[in-house]
Amino acid sequence: TQLLEQSPQFLSIQEGENLTVYCNSSSVFSSLQWYRQEPGEGPVLLVTVVTGGEVKKLKRLTFQFGDARKDSSLHITAAQPGDTGLYLCAGARDQAGTALIFGKGTTLSVSS
Amino acid sequence: GAVVSQHPSRVICKSGTSVKIECRSLDFQATTMFWYRQFPKQSLMLMATSNEGSKATYEQGVEKDKFLINHASLTLSTLTVTSAHPEDSSFYICSARQPAGVSGGEQFFGPGTRLTVL
Lengths: 112, 118
Prior knowledge:
Chain A has strands spanning 5-7, 10-14, 19-24, 32-37, 44-49, 55-58, 61-65, 71-76, 85-92, 100-102, 106-111. By secondary structure, chain A is an all-beta fold. In chain A, strands 2, 4, 5, 9, 10 and 11 form a 6-stranded mixed sheet that branches. Chain A is globular, with a radius of gyration of 13 Å. By secondary structure, chain B is mainly beta. Chain B is 0% helix and 52% strand. Chain B has strands spanning 4-7, 10-13, 19-25, 32-38, 44-51, 57-58, 67-73, 76-81, 90-97, 107-109, 113-117. In chain B, strands 2, 4, 5, 6, 9, 10 and 11 form a 7-stranded mixed sheet that branches. In chain B, strands 1-3-8-7 form a 4-stranded antiparallel sheet, with no helix packed on it. In chain B, strand 7 (67-73) and strand 8 (76-81) form a beta hairpin. Chain B is globular, with a radius of gyration of 14 Å. The model of chain B has no long low-confidence stretch (mean pLDDT 90). Classes of the chains: A mainly beta, B mainly beta. Chains A and B meet through strand 5, strand 9 and strand 10 of A and strand 5, strand 9 and strand 10 of B.
């Protein structure tokens, strides 16, 4: 069974601080996606990483896929209150990228 | 990105009744759609994979007779919660997968349906 361990589960920081969220597995994933979800809404895709060692940047967000494609990280620089939300990592279970396995999520709260 | 809609967004029903939730891909054809369930402050749990024109594949522990899934067209999948009970109250989210040759076959999520069973 493929599992994704996501940490930390909860994070409460001040505006301007940096943070990193980790997603780890003992299994290899063909791709890994990061989502952000606000209460009462569906997850919104932030990024997809496919290649081992890949780094993608989305404004103040930096995503990295581990060389072995078993782990990933999300780093936010100078967090803002608008970054508050639930961050989810999800790994594609097979080459066709069908079902996604979700981590337990990281609830981020950024206060001003 | 691609747009996926869900209807209704909220539904309140009495125990014992059945509720149908629709998931539509608005601007692309989705041969595969997925249904997830999410409890407060928790992650998404995959319930079933819905393939157009064939029977859904259910995850272990999900009752197929209770959660009926129909994927009659390339843009519509429905989830019917039959004989709903209060423990079925949850946030149900669908996602639709673009064809493998489009955007790497990424999944896009609907806005979710909040089901409350009294």
